[in-house]
Please model this.
Amino acid sequence: MEITPLVWGITIAVTIAFFVYEFFAHVRKPHEPSVGESARWSAFYIGLALLFGVVIGFVPGWGWVYSGEYFAGYLTEKALSIDNLFVFLIVMAGFAVPKIYQQKVLMIGIVIALIMRGGFIAVGAALIENFSWIFYIFGALLLFLAYRQAFAHGDSDPANGRFMQFVRRILPVSDEYNGDKLTVKKGGKRFVTPMLLVIVAIGFVDLIFAVDSIPAIYGLTNEAYIVFTANAFALMGLRQLYFLIGGLLERLVYLAQGLAVILAFIGVKLLFHALHVNELPFINGGEPLLWVPEIPIWLSLLFIAATIVVATVASLAKTRRDDAKALASGTPTSTPEQKKEHS
Model:
């Protein structure tokens, strides 16, 4: 896939322009977005992402194979980003962030995520270019992450984990928010506000999710441009999606398991590819195992889309049954925020 420096420059500039516009048009003035506003902008960004994938198919020298890789990568990154949103929801509930300031926190978190993923993309591209054995490591890492995603999801509270306890020990923290300011001066001494702690926590979460997402998408394409654009489009509109499906997030009870299946599938795909291009001397004498099948991109795209659909439908069906049982027994249901308040 031939990508000139000019194309890279235009792509990065347009991406930055979108986020700058988002900040000045929607985030600069604190407010809680309406459902209508969130729905319109979510539809716009999803439509833009789909249109870009179609454009890739029509560009001479790129074609529909790369378009398929983009769509598979976009679906995977979007699903991982929604899982990221669920953790953001827990963080903001843990720090009791006022709703009018949640947009700013989300915007900063999304920008941090894009910067971190950009760095991981550059490192991943360099490793793949020079070391074919890196596919073994990526594949093994994804299988481990799939296991963790399936069996350890939601076991920790990012707002009160060891990392945040360490941050609280080294930084003087005020007890209450001061608007959306990050620091406040009291009695001649400078304190950081809980708003800064929220941003630090979300930055740490972003780092963890970057470790998940970049090996996953490199299992679907070797093209750094597709990896970057799929990540950028997956993150665009994530702020609006948070407010649009905030009440739906806790109902996606099987999202973690669905993502675990996707990560495991891509991990196996990466290991197959590693064997197919093998250069390690202690495996088959350093020769490729050409009999090992390569999983085609159309199958990857179909599998990822089907897994997301099944996980979503199964989640909604289960929560509907649980709500019906709770209603029949007279037990009220509660959201993560309400549970936090009661505790």
